[in-house]
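Subject: mismatched residue count in predicted assembly?

I count 218 residues in my input, but I want to confirm that the predicted structure covers every chain. Input:
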Amino acid sequence: MNRDELLPGTLALLILRTLARGQEMHGFEIARSIQQTSQDVLQVEEGSLYPALQRMLVKGWVKAEWGVTDENRRARYYKLTPAGKKQMEVETEQFERVMGAIVRVIQTA
Amino acid sequence: MNRDELLPGTLALLILRTLARGQEMHGFEIARSIQQTSQDVLQVEEGSLYPALQRMLVKGWVKAEWGVTDENRRARYYKLTPAGKKQMEVETEQFERVMGAIVRVIQTA
DNA sequence: CGAGTATGCATAGACTCTCTATGTCAGAAA
DNA sequence: TTTCTGACATAGAGAGTCTATGCATACTCG
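Triage response: the counts match. Full output below for your records.
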């Protein structure tokens, strides 16, 4: 684990969870939101974010529309599809299972 | 996250923690131990285990000696080095930080 | 006005890690 | 003797992330 930022394999879940709060968001906003909510522990690099969003588009977990930000810049707004919501639930459950298991191993003296 | 088994990036930590219980163990034993302690949630495939052990040898986190099992088969016994113990502490702390951060994101409504 | 800075999207290439599949060897069991 | 199991090991593929870079546009400040 040379990693400073994310745990590989968790980015999709983080994005899904962030979008599940209901508001449409564009990429930058999603990244900022994850960073803030995690109190600066998790940093989503652009080179990770956009490929992840592409994958999620292809899989139909999110939909995207071009729009304009408050500051009058063009941006792609993402929102969850029903499939994405389902996926979020699956991944959340799976994450909690694995996490609990890892914690068990770590805490076993 | 199509994954059934491990979270990528956590295997070294699991191995370090397992060896930190004090006994020398060989590869198979380490894998079995992780699987058992996690109540069958985490499965360490051989194709993941041995490369991981190699990496850890190279980095000096573990030492290995050839020996013989109870059942009279040859096996490589691994034990933690001081550097490995240190690494374990670093990774544990890092893991807990990241984990807490992810949980925060997941639980934020 | 022009230069720099920040916002926002995007991709290429490298790198790391895990998995599947396969191979080997030796002891145990049938 | 053949088969099974324990144990180690590697090759190759695939997934995911990071660094670096590029582009376009809007805002700011001299």
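The beta strands of chain B are 25-26, 62-68, 74-80. Marking this ticket as 'not a bug'.
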